[in-house]
């Protein structure tokens, strides 16, 4: 029987670091889709993969002109549920990663959305269910999996016993390659660090 080959979308944030540490997939993809902090996300993700002995690939597709909010350094659309909202972002990331994954003979593609992401429609169980149905229906039959939806970020750290060495380099800033300490991504990271007594 053919073995299952796993890949993960690794952004360099706490959630994807936790899932990468737990899964130890065959390969991790970091996507530069035109987001402002792409350079730092790639650096952190590469560091994590080197530490864990995981193959790392960067996928580049500049879609900044299609983005909105802080990640694209542009105004939010009127329907935006948050300052960092980028239209169809997770759908875009799944599509780009799946395009590479099929070339890499990947069977399962993992993402790490958490409980606090469910105010975005693309951070819900229903979104991942529908994404899996669509992608697995197509050639290659790749499964889209998000096993972290029932947990908050600090719970992932505890559940997967993630070393602080890996978490300390996490980058979640939406507006810069150096953490601003003020955006919602930075505030989330500070909150998680407090919750796990990292200070």
TrEMBL record:
<dbReference type="InterPro" id="IPR018317">
    <property type="entry name" value="QueC"/>
</dbReference>
<keyword id="KW-0547">Nucleotide-binding</keyword>
<keyword id="KW-0479">Metal-binding</keyword>
<dbReference type="GO" id="GO:0016874">
    <property type="term" value="F:ligase activity"/>
</dbReference>
<keyword id="KW-0436">Ligase</keyword>
<keyword id="KW-0862">Zinc</keyword>
<keyword id="KW-0067">ATP-binding</keyword>
<protein>
    <submittedName>
        <fullName>7-cyano-7-deazaguanine synthase</fullName>
        <ecNumber>6.3.4.20</ecNumber>
    </submittedName>
</protein>
<comment type="pathway">
    <text>Purine metabolism.</text>
</comment>
<dbReference type="Pfam" id="PF06508">
    <property type="entry name" value="QueC"/>
</dbReference>
């Amino acid at each position: 029987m053919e073995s299952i080959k796993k890949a993960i979308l690794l952004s360099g944030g706490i959630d994807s670091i936790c899932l990468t540490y737990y899964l130890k997939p065959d390969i991790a993809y970091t996507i530069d889709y035109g987001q402002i902090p792409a350079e730092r996300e790639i650096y952190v993700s590469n560091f994590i993969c080197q530490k864990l002995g995981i193959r790392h690939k960067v996928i580049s597709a500049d879609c900044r002109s299609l983005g909105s909010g802080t990640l694209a350094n542009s105004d939010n659309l009127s329907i935006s549920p948050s300052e960092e909202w980028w239209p169809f972002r997770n759908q875009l990331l799944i599509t780009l990663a799946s395009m590479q994954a099929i070339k890499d003979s990947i069977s399962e593609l993992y993402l790490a959305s958490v409980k606090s992401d469910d105010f975005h429609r693309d951070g819900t169980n229903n979104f991942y269910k529908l994404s899996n149905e669509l992608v697995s229906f197509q050639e290659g039959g790749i499964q889209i999996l998000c096993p972290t939806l029932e947990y908050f970020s600090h719970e992932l750290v505890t559940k997967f016993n993630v070393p602080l060495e890996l978490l300390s380099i996490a980058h979640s800033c939406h507006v810069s390659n150096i953490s601003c300490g003020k955006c919602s991504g930075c505030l989330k990271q500070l909150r998680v660090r407090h919750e796990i007594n990292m200070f």
